[in-house]
Structure formats: C-alpha cells, structure tokens
Amino acid sequence: MLDEEDDLEADLTSKQEDELPVPARAAVADWWQRARQDFSRSARYLDGKPFSGTALLDALARGPMRRRHVHARELALRTQGAHDVQTLAFTARQVAELAGAERVRENVSTRPLARTFGD
User: What share of the chain has pLDDT > 70, as a percent?
Assistant: First the structure.
C-alpha cells in the first residue's frame, strides 16, 4: 500500500557514499578516549594533523579523491584565487598547478575563513 507522502519520482539508485563502511561505534569511542588528549578544542585538524598549508597540499595531492574538490576550493580561497587546482583537468595540468602551489605551502593562511573574508 502506498503512503500518500511517498515520492514516486525519487531516485532509488545507490550513491558512492552508500558504499562507505559503517564505523564500528565501540571501536571509535575506544580510540577517541585514548586519542582525545592529543587534540586541542581550539585547533582545526586535517588528516589528524594540525591544519596548515602543508597539511592542505598533502591532502590535495595524496588524499581520497572524493575530498579533492573541497580541498582545491579551500586552497583557492586561502590563496585568493592565486592557486586554483582544476581537479577535473588532465593529470599533467593538476601536477603543474600543485607544483605552483608548493611555493606558497608555508604561507597559506590558517585563519578561519570567516575571519579571512571579514565576517
């Protein structure tokens, strides 16, 4: 029996994120109890390391593909458009764009983006 609120036009195909493993809650909670002392509440982290230009470029170059677009956008924002890695471009172009960004690795702003843009 159909509910009147069922969306008959809904896309029921699986998405890529549906294939991600489900975290083991007990194992995550146990790990966090041991690791939380190594993290500061006031700091931002990327791949478990304090956020920095180095961490951002490393994540962009070697991190999971599904996160590259977001990391590339953050790099572009933090460098005011000077380094805009086109993640859908051919590899040679991306390598060249990342090489250009390497020169500013140590100078990438780590301020919260809201403060960077005046909010």
Answer: 92
